[in-house]
Design goal:
7 helices, Pdz3 Domain, alpha+beta, elongated, disordered C terminus
Length: 266
């Protein structure tokens, strides 16, 4: 998951693409803002700032009133506007090098296009947050869906019903806003992988093609799968960690390819 989310319970000794010598020169401060930001490919469109991907309950950002999908455009008069989202992320990380727990920071952020200000108190990093196995990925996506609606996440998520190979899998259709996080403009995002390990899918994978066909939505994916006979092989093309890969699956008996159910995102 590290290429899907940068762990930004923002601590100041965290660096990106730096050599060990330069890292050793930095003070090992452990200040946090209490947010996650999304990892981004290097190229991209100009951005107004850093998008808040998740907020730690009870953390500094939460206490200051920041919410998922807010865009931090300035922190202590340092602009985060940049030529790409990745550059904006780097600017924020670089700024955090000089921040200590207890520092009060003036944050300017956009919410639904309107500028707001808040005073955010940096806190000491809780090591348990770093050691925790994984991130609350699906919850973060649902929060983004509530903020961005159709522009970010499709208004319905789909869960494969019943038992079988795809049981428990949840998907959302990738939209342009969400696609920028994953380096692709089409496909189905796996927000919860199937209960079994046969498929090899993981949370955060993007299914780009099934048998050479690009699924437009989870229902379309179901129809593609149902077009195959039992024991036929089907090739899945996916995107994971900013890289493309594929695998071949032999489909079981047709009844185990249960259809998705849709429900409004909370």
């Amino acid at each position: 998951m590290k290429c899907i989310l940068l762990l930004l319970y923002l601590f100041s000794n965290y660096t990106l693409a730096e050599d060990p010598e330069s890292m050793s020169d930095r003070p090992r401060q452990r200040a946090v803002l209490g947010i996650n930001i999304a990892n981004q490919p290097g190229a991209g469109e100009p951005v107004e700032g850093v998008i808040v991907f998740a907020v730690t309950p009870g953390g500094g950002a939460d206490d200051a009133g920041l919410q998922v999908a807010d865009i931090i455009v300035e922190i202590n008069d340092v602009s985060l506007m940049a030529a790409s989202a990745r550059e904006a992320n780097h600017r924020l990380l670089d700024f955090m090098v000089g921040v200590s727990p207890g520092d009060d920071l003036k944050v300017v952020y956009l919410r639904e296009g309107k500028a707001n200000e808040a005073i955010l108190t940096a806190e000491k990093l809780d090591p348990n947050m770093i050691a925790a196995p994984g991130l609350p990925f699906m919850r973060d996506l649902e929060r983004l869906g509530r903020q961005f609606g159709d522009e970010f996440i499709a208004p319905f998520k789909y869960r494969w019903r019943h038992h079988g190979l795809f049981a428990g899998m949840e998907l959302v259709a990738l939209t342009p806003g969400l696609g920028r996080y994953f380096g692709t403009d089409s496909g189905l995002l796996v927000i919860r992988a199937p209960h079994n390990e046969v498929l090899g899918l993981r949370d955060g994978d993007v299914i780009r093609a099934i048998g050479g066909r690009s699924p437009k939505n989870p229902g379309h994916a179901m129809r593609i799968l149902r077009s195959y006979e039992p024991d036929e092989e089907v090739v899945f093309a996916i995107r994971r960690n900013q890289g493309d890969r594929s695998f071949t699956l032999r489909l079981p008996a047709a009844p185990s390819v249960a259809g998705p159910e849709n429900k409004p995102a909370p």
